[in-house]
Specification:
Strand 3 (58-63) and strand 4 (67-74) form a beta hairpin. The chain has a 4-stranded antiparallel sheet with strand order 2-1-6-7, with helices on one face. A 3-stranded antiparallel sheet has the order 3-4-5, with helices on one face. The chain has 140 residues and is α+β, with helices and mostly antiparallel strands. It is globular and about 65 Å long. 14% of the residues lie in helices and 30% in strands. The protein has 2 helices and 7 strands, in the order αβββββββα. The longest helix has 14 residues, at 7-20.
């Protein structure tokens, strides 16, 4: 069974660690990743943007399992930022560079296509007898 991404959990932990150590947390973002909403005029030639997510620099910061979102000023203009966790490349302290750069996450397999009525008709309706049922075992 596949597990959920550890990235949002690591982001929250490292953010807290960086702030607790009185450093400035910076978020490195792939600005061209799907659903990323950042001001494109600040994106570098590599398609990345570094965002200061210190408590004094942003309003309404949330680091949820799906995404990081907040409001920040760019050139004096309040801007809503939305970064899916898969678009976060790393988080680190501005003062000393300590933090973590993330490996690319594998794409989730799309759901297999749903069988058509023709496919259903071709399948046997007999119950499977060779399927193993889950069971618990006492270990002493």
């Amino acid at each position: 069974m596949g597990m959920t991404s550890s990235r949002p959990y690591m982001l929250r932990a490292l953010y807290d660690w960086i702030v607790d150590n009185e450093c400035t947390p910076y978020l490195l973002v792939d600005a061209h990743a799907s659903d990323v909403e950042v001001p494109q005029q600040y994106v570098n030639k590599d398609g990345q943007i570094v965002l200061n997510i210190a408590p004094t620099a942003v309003v309404g910061l949330t680091i949820e399992n799906a995404a990081v979102s907040f409001n920040a000023r760019f050139g004096g203009i309040p801007t809503n930022i939305y970064v899916p966790c898969s678009g976060v490349l790393g988080i680190y302290a501005r003062e000393n560079g300590q933090g973590m750069i993330f490996e690319p996450e594998p794409e989730l397999d799309p759901e297999p296509p749903k069988p058509t009525t023709k496919d259903k008709a071709e399948k046997s309706v007999e119950p499977q007898t060779d399927a193993k049922r889950p069971s618990l075992k006492v270990v002493k």
